[in-house]
Amino acid sequence: MTTPALPSARSPERSASSPELPALLPGMLRVDPDDADPARRGRVRRSVRDWVVDTLCFVIAILIGLMTYDSAMQTDPPEIVQLADLVVGALACLSLWWRRRWPVQLAVVVALLAIGVSSAAGAGVVLLFTVAVHRRWAVAAAVAAVNFGTALAFYAVYPDPVLAFRWTVLLSASVVAAVTLWGMLVRSRRQLVLSLRERAYQAEAEAALRVERARHLERERIAREMHDVLAHRISLLSVHAGALEYRPDAPRADVANAAGVIRASAHQALQDLREIIGVLRAPSSDDDPDRPQPTLAQLPALVEESRQAGMRVSVVDQLNADGAEPPPAIARCAYRVVQEALTNVRKHARGTGVCVTLTGGPGGGLAVEVRNRMPVGSDARATTSEIPGTGTGLIGLAERVELAGGMLEHGITRDGDFRVHAWLPWPA
């Protein structure tokens, strides 16, 4: 018996029955070639590569079997024994076409037949290699032990006229060990290739998830920006348009003034929307990732716009900045808190007074408080929602503040005021 250079059964990465790698869950790596075995996955059709490999294995098994048969027949057994040897050996070689479905069973049966059938030795070698490739090391070792025992029994039935029995034992052990170790090496390589491929798919999936998460966060940021800007502008438009509706007999100067404010607010709203859409369409850049954002420096202009819309807004600035400016992200977040609070007052408590208070300083944090009286009685009925809203403004504002590392509180106080209070970190 000699060790043939046999290709193995089809590799799991090319097999039609191999697991669909992209469908694997992250963190679950199945690197066992047994998963690609039709005996465990169900019957499948052979590919072109499978036909080529199976044909090659069949031819090699016949060649090894004929070589072993020629050596064994030197003892000149009866012709009926020689004919039976060839017939059984041919059947053993034919059984290789089903080696993927029953590798262990066929390997054991053919190994037992090889005790008296010399031409079945080639099929036994191929089946031993198949078991070593497709089954775990314990099963492969057990089948190898069976093959070694039957090889010793074969040389007892057909003694080698040239080699002594101890050399035939050494030769059998060497061939069985070489075939088994070769199959295990192929199995280990397949496990490594399959593991690397699955990890590559997993890395691609994680990268896709990161990209999707980044897109989701960007959409949230843009949606929050559109809400903050457009809700403020449109609420101003609604207030001025409502004034014209309820005061059709107003002096022409007042009507013209209100119409001018409406036109300016509409123009500004369109400009803001154009800038936001421009951010969507423009390619991402680390140098200029966002459009210019408002900070506390623009807070007086925001308050003045609200006053022009008829709101009574007072500002109490108690910042102990000593010339220091809060970080841009913190200043922008504080501006958005005031903007959202004023927008909500125009929607739900129009006509009430609003007090905006800024306190804190470097090292102690920046506190923003917006307080207004809650309308009661007829005032409450008069201010019920003429301006539609989504009801998520404060929720989005809380998320913005939390992302900045701060805290947001809002609700009705014991005094009957509605209070929005945000604390934002201001490093020293």
UniProtKB/TrEMBL annotation:
Residues 49-190 form the DUF7134 domain. Keywords: ATP-binding, Kinase, Membrane, Nucleotide-binding, Phosphoprotein, Transferase, Transmembrane, Transmembrane helix, Two-component regulatory system. Residues 1-23 are annotated as: Disordered. InterPro entries: DUF7134, HATPase_C_sf, Sensor_HK_TwoCompSys, Sig_transdc_His_kin_sub3_dim/P. Its EC number is 2.7.13.3. GO terms for cellular component: membrane. It is an enzyme of class 2 (transferase). One of its GO terms (molecular function) is ATP binding. It holds the Pfam family HisKA_3. This is histidine kinase. It comes from Jiangella mangrovi.
